[in-house]
Amino acid sequence: MATTDTAAEDALDELLRDKARIAELPSDDDEEESGPPFPGKQCRAKRVKPEPPAWLSEATFSLFHDDYKTISSEAIAKTTAECLPLLTIRDARGLSLNSHGLPHLRTGQHADFLRQPLGNLPAGFAVMDASRPWLFYWCTAGQSFLGEDVSIYREDLIHTVRPLQNKTGGFGGGHGQLSHCACTYATLLALATVGGLEVVDREAMWHWLGTVKQVDGGFRMAIDAEEDIRGAYCAMTALTLLNLPLELPPDCPAREAGLTHFTDKLGEWISTCQTYEGGISSAPNHEVHGAYAFCALACLCILGPPHDTIPKHLDVEALIHCLTTLQTTPEGGFAGRTNKLVDACYSHWVGGCWALLEAAITPPHHNKQQNGKTPTTVSKPISLWNREALVRYLLTCCQQSGPKGGMRDKPSARPDGYHTCYSLSGLSAAMHHYAYDAAGLDKDAVSGRLLAAFNWKGRRGTESELKSLKVDEVDVVGLVHPVFVIGFEAVERARLQFEKGEF
Protein backbone atom coordinates (compact mmCIF):
# COMPACT_ATOMS: atom_id res chain seq x y z
CA MET A 1 0.00 0.00 0.00
CA ALA A 2 2.84 2.38 0.89
CA THR A 3 4.57 1.66 -2.45
CA THR A 4 1.43 2.48 -4.43
CA ASP A 5 0.96 5.78 -2.57
CA THR A 6 4.56 6.78 -3.22
CA ALA A 7 4.25 6.03 -6.95
CA ALA A 8 1.06 8.10 -7.18
CA GLU A 9 2.71 11.04 -5.43
CA ASP A 10 5.72 10.89 -7.76
CA ALA A 11 3.44 10.85 -10.81
CA LEU A 12 1.45 13.85 -9.50
CA ASP A 13 4.65 15.81 -8.80
CA GLU A 14 5.93 15.15 -12.32
CA LEU A 15 2.60 16.18 -13.88
CA LEU A 16 2.44 19.44 -11.90
CA ARG A 17 6.08 20.23 -12.72
CA ASP A 18 5.52 19.80 -16.45
CA LYS A 19 2.08 21.46 -16.63
CA ALA A 20 2.40 24.13 -13.93
CA ARG A 21 0.93 27.48 -14.96
CA ILE A 22 -0.92 30.44 -13.47
CA ALA A 23 -4.26 31.27 -15.10
CA GLU A 24 -7.06 33.67 -14.17
CA LEU A 25 -10.31 31.86 -13.59
CA PRO A 26 -13.38 33.44 -15.20
CA SER A 27 -15.62 35.36 -12.78
CA ASP A 28 -19.31 34.70 -12.28
CA ASP A 29 -20.07 37.91 -14.15
CA ASP A 30 -18.26 36.93 -17.38
CA GLU A 31 -20.74 36.74 -20.25
CA GLU A 32 -18.69 34.33 -22.40
CA GLU A 33 -17.33 31.10 -21.04
CA SER A 34 -15.54 28.27 -22.81
CA GLY A 35 -15.54 24.65 -21.82
CA PRO A 36 -17.73 22.92 -19.26
CA PRO A 37 -19.00 24.99 -16.29
CA PHE A 38 -17.36 24.75 -12.90
CA PRO A 39 -19.01 21.83 -11.04
CA GLY A 40 -22.06 23.08 -9.13
CA LYS A 41 -21.77 26.62 -10.47
CA GLN A 42 -25.13 26.43 -12.18
CA CYS A 43 -26.76 25.69 -8.78
CA ARG A 44 -25.09 28.57 -6.94
CA ALA A 45 -27.46 31.39 -5.90
CA LYS A 46 -26.52 34.77 -7.28
CA ARG A 47 -25.97 37.55 -4.76
CA VAL A 48 -28.77 40.09 -4.70
CA LYS A 49 -27.61 43.57 -5.71
CA PRO A 50 -30.59 45.71 -4.75
CA GLU A 51 -30.97 49.19 -6.11
CA PRO A 52 -30.88 51.87 -3.40
CA PRO A 53 -34.29 53.33 -2.51
CA ALA A 54 -35.29 56.77 -3.72
CA TRP A 55 -34.34 58.59 -0.54
CA LEU A 56 -30.72 57.38 -0.94
CA SER A 57 -30.31 58.57 -4.53
CA GLU A 58 -28.11 61.44 -5.69
CA ALA A 59 -31.21 63.23 -6.96
CA THR A 60 -32.56 63.35 -3.39
CA PHE A 61 -29.29 64.67 -1.97
CA SER A 62 -29.21 67.48 -4.52
CA LEU A 63 -32.43 68.89 -3.05
CA PHE A 64 -30.62 70.04 0.09
CA HIS A 65 -28.34 73.09 0.01
CA ASP A 66 -27.33 74.29 3.44
CA ASP A 67 -24.11 76.27 3.19
CA TYR A 68 -24.37 77.77 6.67
CA LYS A 69 -22.21 75.72 9.02
CA THR A 70 -23.15 75.18 12.65
CA ILE A 71 -22.13 72.64 15.29
CA SER A 72 -25.42 70.82 14.67
CA SER A 73 -25.11 70.82 10.87
CA GLU A 74 -21.54 69.50 11.06
CA ALA A 75 -22.61 66.74 13.47
CA ILE A 76 -25.48 65.79 11.16
CA ALA A 77 -23.14 65.70 8.15
CA LYS A 78 -20.69 63.47 10.06
CA THR A 79 -23.47 61.06 11.04
CA THR A 80 -24.75 60.94 7.46
CA ALA A 81 -21.25 60.11 6.22
CA GLU A 82 -21.06 57.26 8.76
CA CYS A 83 -24.43 55.87 7.73
CA LEU A 84 -24.35 56.07 3.92
CA PRO A 85 -21.91 53.17 3.28
CA LEU A 86 -24.01 51.00 5.59
CA LEU A 87 -27.38 52.08 4.20
CA THR A 88 -26.27 51.37 0.62
CA ILE A 89 -24.58 48.08 1.69
CA ARG A 90 -21.26 49.25 0.27
CA ASP A 91 -19.99 48.17 3.67
CA ALA A 92 -21.89 45.19 5.10
CA ARG A 93 -19.32 44.78 7.93
CA GLY A 94 -19.42 41.02 7.49
CA LEU A 95 -23.05 40.78 8.59
CA SER A 96 -25.11 37.97 7.11
CA LEU A 97 -27.44 39.33 4.42
CA ASN A 98 -31.01 38.25 3.82
CA SER A 99 -32.61 37.44 0.46
CA HIS A 100 -33.17 41.17 -0.21
CA GLY A 101 -29.57 42.17 0.40
CA LEU A 102 -30.09 43.72 3.85
CA PRO A 103 -28.49 42.40 7.07
CA HIS A 104 -30.52 39.83 8.94
CA LEU A 105 -31.85 40.83 12.36
CA ARG A 106 -29.35 39.16 14.71
CA THR A 107 -32.10 37.70 16.88
CA GLY A 108 -30.03 35.21 18.86
CA GLN A 109 -27.21 37.65 19.57
CA HIS A 110 -29.62 40.39 20.66
CA ALA A 111 -31.42 38.00 23.01
CA ASP A 112 -28.06 36.99 24.54
CA PHE A 113 -27.13 40.65 24.94
CA LEU A 114 -30.37 41.37 26.82
CA ARG A 115 -29.86 38.40 29.12
CA GLN A 116 -26.56 39.64 30.51
CA PRO A 117 -27.82 42.64 32.58
CA LEU A 118 -30.28 40.37 34.39
CA GLY A 119 -27.39 38.59 36.10
CA ASN A 120 -24.51 39.89 38.19
CA LEU A 121 -23.20 43.22 36.93
CA PRO A 122 -19.68 44.70 37.13
CA ALA A 123 -18.91 47.62 39.43
CA GLY A 124 -19.27 50.14 36.61
CA PHE A 125 -23.04 49.65 36.66
CA ALA A 126 -23.25 51.28 40.11
CA VAL A 127 -23.96 54.59 38.36
CA MET A 128 -27.25 53.07 37.18
CA ASP A 129 -28.46 52.18 40.66
CA ALA A 130 -31.42 54.57 40.40
CA SER A 131 -32.32 53.09 37.00
CA ARG A 132 -32.46 49.42 37.97
CA PRO A 133 -36.18 49.06 37.10
CA TRP A 134 -35.43 50.26 33.59
CA LEU A 135 -32.82 47.53 33.11
CA PHE A 136 -35.43 44.99 34.21
CA TYR A 137 -37.96 46.35 31.72
CA TRP A 138 -35.67 46.83 28.72
CA CYS A 139 -34.17 43.36 29.07
CA THR A 140 -37.34 41.37 29.78
CA ALA A 141 -39.57 43.20 27.30
CA GLY A 142 -36.87 43.20 24.61
CA GLN A 143 -36.42 39.46 24.92
CA SER A 144 -40.18 38.93 24.73
CA PHE A 145 -40.30 40.93 21.48
CA LEU A 146 -37.80 38.40 20.11
CA GLY A 147 -40.02 35.48 21.12
CA GLU A 148 -38.00 34.45 24.17
CA ASP A 149 -39.66 32.85 27.21
CA VAL A 150 -39.15 35.43 29.98
CA SER A 151 -41.29 33.68 32.60
CA ILE A 152 -38.05 32.13 33.87
CA TYR A 153 -37.20 35.52 35.45
CA ARG A 154 -40.45 35.76 37.42
CA GLU A 155 -39.30 34.63 40.87
CA ASP A 156 -35.96 36.45 40.69
CA LEU A 157 -37.61 39.68 39.56
CA ILE A 158 -40.23 39.57 42.32
CA HIS A 159 -37.48 38.97 44.88
CA THR A 160 -35.41 41.84 43.45
CA VAL A 161 -38.12 44.51 43.22
CA ARG A 162 -39.80 43.77 46.54
CA PRO A 163 -37.28 45.92 48.49
CA LEU A 164 -37.72 48.75 45.93
CA GLN A 165 -41.41 49.08 46.84
CA ASN A 166 -42.03 51.68 49.52
CA LYS A 167 -44.62 51.15 52.25
CA THR A 168 -46.22 54.43 51.23
CA GLY A 169 -46.69 53.05 47.70
CA GLY A 170 -44.82 53.06 44.41
CA PHE A 171 -41.32 51.92 43.50
CA GLY A 172 -37.98 53.67 43.77
CA GLY A 173 -35.01 53.13 41.52
CA GLY A 174 -32.87 51.43 44.15
CA HIS A 175 -32.88 50.39 47.79
CA GLY A 176 -34.04 53.18 50.12
CA GLN A 177 -34.91 55.55 47.28
CA LEU A 178 -38.12 57.55 47.06
CA SER A 179 -40.95 56.35 44.83
CA HIS A 180 -40.87 57.79 41.34
CA CYS A 181 -43.38 57.56 38.47
CA ALA A 182 -40.75 56.48 35.92
CA CYS A 183 -39.33 53.75 38.18
CA THR A 184 -42.85 52.62 39.06
CA TYR A 185 -43.82 52.46 35.38
CA ALA A 186 -40.73 50.44 34.41
CA THR A 187 -41.17 48.05 37.34
CA LEU A 188 -44.82 47.41 36.54
CA LEU A 189 -44.09 46.72 32.86
CA ALA A 190 -41.27 44.32 33.76
CA LEU A 191 -43.50 42.51 36.27
CA ALA A 192 -46.36 42.36 33.77
CA THR A 193 -44.01 40.92 31.15
CA VAL A 194 -42.93 38.02 33.38
CA GLY A 195 -46.31 37.59 35.10
CA GLY A 196 -45.40 38.85 38.57
CA LEU A 197 -47.75 41.79 39.28
CA GLU A 198 -49.11 40.17 42.46
CA VAL A 199 -46.12 41.59 44.37
CA VAL A 200 -47.55 45.13 43.98
CA ASP A 201 -49.28 46.71 46.97
CA ARG A 202 -52.14 48.14 44.96
CA GLU A 203 -53.84 50.04 47.77
CA ALA A 204 -50.60 51.78 48.78
CA MET A 205 -49.96 52.51 45.10
CA TRP A 206 -53.39 54.18 44.83
CA HIS A 207 -52.66 56.44 47.80
CA TRP A 208 -49.19 57.34 46.51
CA LEU A 209 -50.49 58.24 43.05
CA GLY A 210 -52.93 60.56 44.81
CA THR A 211 -49.98 62.50 46.25
CA VAL A 212 -48.57 63.29 42.76
CA LYS A 213 -51.89 64.31 41.18
CA GLN A 214 -51.92 68.10 40.67
CA VAL A 215 -54.75 70.63 40.87
CA ASP A 216 -54.21 71.67 37.21
CA GLY A 217 -54.84 68.10 36.08
CA GLY A 218 -51.29 66.89 35.53
CA PHE A 219 -49.00 64.65 37.59
CA ARG A 220 -45.60 65.14 39.20
CA MET A 221 -42.91 62.53 38.69
CA ALA A 222 -42.51 62.23 42.46
CA ILE A 223 -43.56 64.16 45.54
CA ASP A 224 -42.25 67.74 45.10
CA ALA A 225 -40.61 66.76 41.77
CA GLU A 226 -41.24 68.17 38.29
CA GLU A 227 -44.69 68.02 36.74
CA ASP A 228 -44.57 66.79 33.14
CA ILE A 229 -46.22 64.62 30.53
CA ARG A 230 -44.21 61.55 31.53
CA GLY A 231 -45.83 61.59 34.95
CA ALA A 232 -49.30 61.63 33.39
CA TYR A 233 -48.58 58.66 31.13
CA CYS A 234 -46.80 56.63 33.83
CA ALA A 235 -49.52 57.27 36.42
CA MET A 236 -52.37 56.41 34.05
CA THR A 237 -50.56 53.24 32.99
CA ALA A 238 -50.32 52.15 36.63
CA LEU A 239 -53.96 53.00 37.35
CA THR A 240 -55.18 51.08 34.29
CA LEU A 241 -53.01 47.96 34.39
CA LEU A 242 -53.63 47.50 38.13
CA ASN A 243 -57.31 48.50 37.91
CA LEU A 244 -57.04 51.04 40.73
CA PRO A 245 -60.03 53.24 41.60
CA LEU A 246 -60.22 56.35 39.45
CA GLU A 247 -61.65 58.24 42.41
CA LEU A 248 -58.97 60.20 44.23
CA PRO A 249 -57.98 58.96 47.70
CA PRO A 250 -59.51 60.94 50.59
CA ASP A 251 -56.08 62.32 51.57
CA CYS A 252 -55.23 63.52 48.03
CA PRO A 253 -54.20 67.23 48.12
CA ALA A 254 -55.92 67.85 44.75
CA ARG A 255 -59.28 67.28 46.46
CA GLU A 256 -58.89 70.65 48.18
CA ALA A 257 -59.18 72.27 44.72
CA GLY A 258 -62.39 70.40 43.96
CA LEU A 259 -60.94 67.50 41.95
CA THR A 260 -62.51 64.11 42.62
CA HIS A 261 -60.94 61.77 40.03
CA PHE A 262 -57.49 61.07 38.61
CA THR A 263 -58.82 61.93 35.15
CA ASP A 264 -60.10 65.38 36.14
CA LYS A 265 -58.58 68.15 33.94
CA LEU A 266 -55.99 65.69 32.59
CA GLY A 267 -56.98 65.99 28.92
CA GLU A 268 -57.10 69.78 29.22
CA TRP A 269 -53.64 69.84 30.80
CA ILE A 270 -52.22 67.69 27.98
CA SER A 271 -53.62 70.23 25.52
CA THR A 272 -51.46 72.93 27.11
CA CYS A 273 -48.33 70.90 26.30
CA GLN A 274 -48.83 71.29 22.52
CA THR A 275 -46.77 74.19 21.20
CA TYR A 276 -46.99 76.51 18.20
CA GLU A 277 -44.83 73.99 16.28
CA GLY A 278 -47.53 71.34 16.63
CA GLY A 279 -45.38 69.04 18.72
CA ILE A 280 -45.63 68.13 22.40
CA SER A 281 -43.41 69.49 25.16
CA SER A 282 -42.81 68.03 28.60
CA ALA A 283 -44.90 70.77 30.20
CA PRO A 284 -46.51 74.02 29.03
CA ASN A 285 -44.05 76.44 27.34
CA HIS A 286 -41.22 73.88 27.12
CA GLU A 287 -39.38 72.56 24.06
CA VAL A 288 -41.02 70.08 21.68
CA HIS A 289 -39.67 66.52 21.90
CA GLY A 290 -40.66 63.33 20.10
CA ALA A 291 -40.78 61.19 23.25
CA TYR A 292 -43.26 63.56 24.88
CA ALA A 293 -45.53 63.19 21.86
CA PHE A 294 -45.75 59.47 22.49
CA CYS A 295 -46.46 59.98 26.20
CA ALA A 296 -49.27 62.43 25.39
CA LEU A 297 -50.84 60.24 22.71
CA ALA A 298 -50.61 57.05 24.77
CA CYS A 299 -52.09 58.81 27.80
CA LEU A 300 -55.04 60.05 25.73
CA CYS A 301 -55.51 56.51 24.39
CA ILE A 302 -55.86 55.32 27.99
CA LEU A 303 -58.49 57.98 28.70
CA GLY A 304 -60.70 56.83 25.81
CA PRO A 305 -60.94 55.83 22.14
CA PRO A 306 -58.19 57.56 20.11
CA HIS A 307 -60.61 58.92 17.52
CA ASP A 308 -62.40 60.73 20.36
CA THR A 309 -59.73 61.79 22.86
CA ILE A 310 -56.84 62.74 20.55
CA PRO A 311 -58.73 65.15 18.23
CA LYS A 312 -60.55 66.57 21.24
CA HIS A 313 -57.39 67.63 23.03
CA LEU A 314 -54.76 68.03 20.30
CA ASP A 315 -54.37 69.70 16.91
CA VAL A 316 -53.79 66.42 15.07
CA GLU A 317 -52.82 67.94 11.72
CA ALA A 318 -50.18 70.16 13.31
CA LEU A 319 -48.82 67.24 15.36
CA ILE A 320 -48.54 65.02 12.30
CA HIS A 321 -46.69 67.77 10.42
CA CYS A 322 -44.26 68.18 13.31
CA LEU A 323 -43.54 64.47 13.70
CA THR A 324 -43.03 63.86 9.98
CA THR A 325 -40.14 66.34 10.05
CA LEU A 326 -38.38 64.12 12.59
CA GLN A 327 -37.84 61.24 10.15
CA THR A 328 -34.36 62.00 8.88
CA THR A 329 -33.02 61.92 5.32
CA PRO A 330 -31.06 60.00 4.18
CA GLU A 331 -30.79 57.81 7.31
CA GLY A 332 -34.49 56.98 7.53
CA GLY A 333 -34.57 56.80 11.32
CA PHE A 334 -36.00 59.41 13.66
CA ALA A 335 -34.53 62.30 15.60
CA GLY A 336 -36.03 63.46 18.87
CA ARG A 337 -35.99 67.17 18.09
CA THR A 338 -35.65 69.51 15.13
CA ASN A 339 -32.09 69.69 13.69
CA LYS A 340 -30.84 66.90 15.94
CA LEU A 341 -29.15 63.61 15.11
CA VAL A 342 -30.90 60.39 14.17
CA ASP A 343 -31.21 58.05 17.16
CA ALA A 344 -32.49 54.46 17.23
CA CYS A 345 -34.50 54.93 20.44
CA TYR A 346 -36.88 57.27 18.60
CA SER A 347 -37.81 54.31 16.44
CA HIS A 348 -40.22 53.74 19.32
CA TRP A 349 -40.78 57.21 20.79
CA VAL A 350 -41.68 58.68 17.38
CA GLY A 351 -42.28 55.51 15.38
CA GLY A 352 -44.73 54.36 18.04
CA CYS A 353 -46.83 57.51 17.58
CA TRP A 354 -48.04 56.60 14.11
CA ALA A 355 -50.38 53.77 15.04
CA LEU A 356 -52.02 56.02 17.63
CA LEU A 357 -52.34 58.92 15.17
CA GLU A 358 -53.60 56.68 12.37
CA ALA A 359 -56.35 55.46 14.72
CA ALA A 360 -57.14 59.06 15.64
CA ILE A 361 -57.79 60.09 12.04
CA THR A 362 -59.58 56.86 11.07
CA PRO A 363 -63.25 57.15 12.09
CA PRO A 364 -64.70 53.79 13.11
CA HIS A 365 -67.08 52.27 10.58
CA HIS A 366 -69.56 49.87 12.10
CA ASN A 367 -71.31 47.20 10.10
CA LYS A 368 -75.05 47.06 10.56
CA GLN A 369 -76.13 44.69 13.27
CA GLN A 370 -77.09 41.32 11.84
CA ASN A 371 -78.60 38.32 13.61
CA GLY A 372 -78.13 39.98 16.98
CA LYS A 373 -74.33 40.00 16.67
CA THR A 374 -72.21 42.87 17.95
CA PRO A 375 -71.07 45.21 15.15
CA THR A 376 -67.43 44.96 14.19
CA THR A 377 -65.02 47.74 13.26
CA VAL A 378 -63.70 48.05 9.73
CA SER A 379 -60.60 50.23 9.44
CA LYS A 380 -58.71 51.07 6.29
CA PRO A 381 -54.96 51.26 7.02
CA ILE A 382 -53.46 54.72 6.65
CA SER A 383 -49.71 55.23 6.20
CA LEU A 384 -48.20 58.45 7.52
CA TRP A 385 -44.52 57.52 7.53
CA ASN A 386 -41.79 55.61 5.69
CA ARG A 387 -41.66 52.16 7.30
CA GLU A 388 -39.09 50.77 4.87
CA ALA A 389 -36.65 53.57 5.65
CA LEU A 390 -36.82 52.90 9.39
CA VAL A 391 -36.30 49.15 8.93
CA ARG A 392 -33.28 49.77 6.68
CA TYR A 393 -31.71 52.17 9.19
CA LEU A 394 -32.15 49.78 12.12
CA LEU A 395 -30.86 46.70 10.30
CA THR A 396 -27.91 48.35 8.56
CA CYS A 397 -26.74 51.06 10.96
CA CYS A 398 -27.81 49.93 14.43
CA GLN A 399 -26.45 46.38 14.54
CA GLN A 400 -22.79 45.79 15.21
CA SER A 401 -20.69 43.07 13.65
CA GLY A 402 -18.81 40.45 15.63
CA PRO A 403 -19.98 37.86 18.15
CA LYS A 404 -21.82 40.25 20.48
CA GLY A 405 -25.35 41.46 19.89
CA GLY A 406 -27.25 44.54 21.03
CA MET A 407 -28.48 47.53 19.06
CA ARG A 408 -27.08 51.03 19.18
CA ASP A 409 -28.07 54.64 18.74
CA LYS A 410 -26.03 55.09 15.53
CA PRO A 411 -22.86 53.57 14.00
CA SER A 412 -20.51 55.61 16.20
CA ALA A 413 -22.22 54.50 19.44
CA ARG A 414 -22.08 51.36 21.58
CA PRO A 415 -25.08 49.04 21.99
CA ASP A 416 -27.09 49.09 25.22
CA GLY A 417 -30.33 47.69 26.61
CA TYR A 418 -32.27 50.92 26.16
CA HIS A 419 -31.60 51.25 22.43
CA THR A 420 -31.98 47.50 21.90
CA CYS A 421 -35.45 47.38 23.46
CA TYR A 422 -36.77 50.45 21.67
CA SER A 423 -35.17 49.49 18.33
CA LEU A 424 -37.04 46.19 18.50
CA SER A 425 -40.26 48.02 19.39
CA GLY A 426 -39.68 50.33 16.43
CA LEU A 427 -39.18 47.35 14.13
CA SER A 428 -42.49 45.96 15.37
CA ALA A 429 -44.22 49.27 14.64
CA ALA A 430 -42.84 49.20 11.09
CA MET A 431 -43.46 45.53 10.34
CA HIS A 432 -46.98 45.15 11.71
CA HIS A 433 -50.29 47.03 11.86
CA TYR A 434 -52.15 48.16 14.98
CA ALA A 435 -55.75 49.32 15.05
CA TYR A 436 -58.29 50.32 17.68
CA ASP A 437 -61.37 48.11 17.95
CA ALA A 438 -64.25 50.50 18.50
CA ALA A 439 -66.59 47.58 19.24
CA GLY A 440 -64.98 47.19 22.67
CA LEU A 441 -66.23 48.89 25.84
CA ASP A 442 -64.60 52.15 26.93
CA LYS A 443 -65.28 51.64 30.63
CA ASP A 444 -66.19 48.79 32.96
CA ALA A 445 -69.67 49.39 34.37
CA VAL A 446 -68.87 47.66 37.69
CA SER A 447 -65.31 48.62 38.60
CA GLY A 448 -65.14 51.86 36.60
CA ARG A 449 -61.89 50.71 35.01
CA LEU A 450 -60.88 52.49 31.80
CA LEU A 451 -60.91 49.82 29.09
CA ALA A 452 -60.02 51.75 25.93
CA ALA A 453 -56.34 50.81 26.10
CA PHE A 454 -57.29 47.12 26.10
CA ASN A 455 -59.19 47.42 22.80
CA TRP A 456 -56.13 47.55 20.56
CA LYS A 457 -55.52 44.75 18.08
CA GLY A 458 -52.31 43.83 16.31
CA ARG A 459 -52.12 42.38 12.82
CA ARG A 460 -48.93 40.77 11.61
CA GLY A 461 -47.48 42.14 8.41
CA THR A 462 -48.42 40.05 5.38
CA GLU A 463 -45.86 38.23 3.27
CA SER A 464 -46.06 40.90 0.56
CA GLU A 465 -45.78 43.72 3.11
CA LEU A 466 -42.69 42.16 4.70
CA LYS A 467 -41.22 41.69 1.25
CA SER A 468 -41.75 45.38 0.51
CA LEU A 469 -39.83 46.15 3.71
CA LYS A 470 -37.05 43.84 2.46
CA VAL A 471 -37.09 41.50 5.45
CA ASP A 472 -37.19 37.72 5.63
CA GLU A 473 -39.32 35.68 8.00
CA VAL A 474 -36.42 35.21 10.42
CA ASP A 475 -36.06 38.99 10.69
CA VAL A 476 -39.59 39.58 11.99
CA VAL A 477 -40.15 40.64 15.61
CA GLY A 478 -43.29 40.07 17.66
CA LEU A 479 -46.35 42.25 18.14
CA VAL A 480 -45.92 45.03 20.72
CA HIS A 481 -48.88 46.72 22.41
CA PRO A 482 -48.93 50.29 21.03
CA VAL A 483 -50.00 51.92 24.33
CA PHE A 484 -48.23 49.88 27.05
CA VAL A 485 -45.14 48.80 25.00
CA ILE A 486 -45.12 45.21 26.21
CA GLY A 487 -46.46 42.06 24.59
CA PHE A 488 -50.20 41.70 24.02
CA GLU A 489 -50.23 38.52 26.12
CA ALA A 490 -48.81 40.39 29.12
CA VAL A 491 -51.44 43.14 28.77
CA GLU A 492 -54.28 40.63 28.59
CA ARG A 493 -52.91 38.76 31.61
CA ALA A 494 -52.92 41.98 33.65
CA ARG A 495 -56.45 42.83 32.50
CA LEU A 496 -57.76 39.48 33.69
CA GLN A 497 -55.71 39.40 36.89
CA PHE A 498 -57.28 42.61 38.27
CA GLU A 499 -60.63 42.39 36.53
CA LYS A 500 -62.60 42.58 39.79
CA GLY A 501 -60.71 45.62 41.01
CA GLU A 502 -60.87 45.02 44.78
CA PHE A 503 -57.86 45.57 47.02
As a whole number of angstroms, the C-alpha radius of gyration is 27 Å
Largest sheet: 2 strands, antiparallel
Q: Note the overall shape.
A: globular
CATH hierarchy class name: Mainly Alpha
Total number of helices: 19
CATH architecture: Alpha/alpha barrel
How many domains in all? 1
Low-confidence stretches: 25-35, 366-379
Fraction of residues in helix? 25-40%
SSE string, helices as H and strands as E: HHHHHHHHHHHHHHHEEHHEEHH
How are the strands of the biggest sheet laid out side by side? 1-2
What class would the helix/strand composition place it in? Answer: mainly alpha
Overall mean pLDDT: 89
CATH topology: Glycosyltransferase
Instruction: Tell me what portion of residues adopts beta-strand conformation.
Output: under 5%
Between the first and last Cα atoms, what is the distance in angstroms? Answer: 87 Å
Describe this structure in words.
- With 503 residues, the protein is mostly helical.
- It has a single domain (107-118, 129-368, 387-497), classed as Glycosyltransferase.
- It contains 19 helices and four strands.
- The protein has helices at 2-19, 58-61, 71-87, 107-115, 132-145, 154-161, 181-194, 202-212, 229-241, 266-271, 290-303, 306-313, 316-324, 346-349, 353-360, 387-397, 417-431, 463-468, 488-497, and strands at residues 365-366, 377-378, 433-436, 456-459.
- The strands form two sheets. Strands 1-2 form a two-stranded antiparallel sheet.
- Helix 5 (132-145) packs parallel to helix 17 (417-431) and helix 6 (154-161) runs antiparallel to helix 7.
- It is globular, with a radius of gyration of 27 Å.
- The model is unreliable at 25-35 and 366-379 (pLDDT under 50).
- Its cofactor is Zn(2+).
- InterPro entries: PGGT1B-like, Prenyltrans, Terpenoid_cyclase/PrenylTrfase.
